[in-house]
Design goal:
It is built from six helices and 14 strands. It is α/β, with parallel strands linked by helices.
């Protein structure tokens, strides 16, 4: 399967041009699966301590509007997250989109940080701790949305479910990049699955340095196959899904709990 990860700007003035370049890249590279960063189609809301219903609803509208442009990526399958409102409650919902199947919800983020710049628990509610495999093309995918990657029991449960790809969309800063890559490597090994992650990148107007470094990590030894950078914000690699199948038969995946 040919997969693409990316880093995209938090600044709307840069985002539109980057999106055009990303669409062109995916077409040129014949991408089959594209992973987007966490809630990419609006500025990062949770930098503010106090939540704002109007701002949240605006972000919902922005995501729905940008989602209508995903048809430009067809036949690429797109995986990401977006803000939603469900019966008055706010959630960060992971989704899978394809030209054939349309929008399919996959998982609602259930582990929420609450600290400077990432006041997520103030902004939206935790989803149920349900980590269920999602059918994507000829394989299955499991969501670990940003902070969820550190709750490693879910990587193990995805291994038991036979998942071949972990989708880890992020919104993380540059100061913690190495720690996040280490976590991605551990998740890939524990799940016996390719770990894909995309992130926001670059300085924003407030001077925050987003971490970028989207990655693709293989499942057997947790080797990093490649990362994005500000100079090369898109990365496309062919992954062999049979490697994930074989990985689950080897140490430490075969050890039962």
């Amino acid at each position: 399967m040919r997969v693409t990860v990316c880093e995209l700007s938090n600044e709307r003035g840069h985002f539109g041009d980057q999106w055009t370049e990303l669409v062109a890249h995916c077409r040129r590279e014949k991408t089959e699966l594209l992973l987007l960063p966490e809630m990419p189609f609006s500025p990062w809301l949770a930098k503010r301590h106090e939540s704002d219903q109007k701002a949240w609803l605006s972000a919902v509208v922005e995501h729905e509007s940008w989602r209508s442009t995903l048809v430009d990526l067809a036949p690429t399958t797109v995986v990401g997250t977006q803000p939603i409102v469900d019966e008055g409650a706010r959630f960060n919902e992971g989704f899978v989109w394809s030209a054939v199947g349309g929008y399919r919800p996959g998982h609602r983020k259930s582990y929420l940080p609450n600290e400077e710049g990432f006041w997520e628990a103030n902004w939206y509610q935790a989803g149920p701790k349900e980590f269920t495999a999602v059918d994507v093309e000829e394989t299955t995918l499991g969501f670990l949305i940003c902070t969820e990657m550190w709750f490693t029991e879910h990587a193990r449960s995805y291994a038991r479910a036979g998942v071949s790809i972990l989708a880890a969309p992020r919104a993380t800063g540059a100061s913690s990049t190495e720690k996040w890559i280490a976590g991605g490597r551990a998740a890939a090994v524990m799940a016996g699955a390719f770990c894909l992650s995309s992130n926001r990148g670059g300085l924003d107007a407030a001077g925050f340095d987003w971490g970028g470094h989207g990655w693709i990590i293989e499942p057997e030894e947790g080797d990093v196959l490649g990362t994005t950078s500000s100079a090369k914000p898109f990365l496309t690699i062919d992954i062999d899904l049979d490697v994930a199948v074989r990985a689950k038969q080897t140490y430490p995946r075969y050890i039962s709990e």
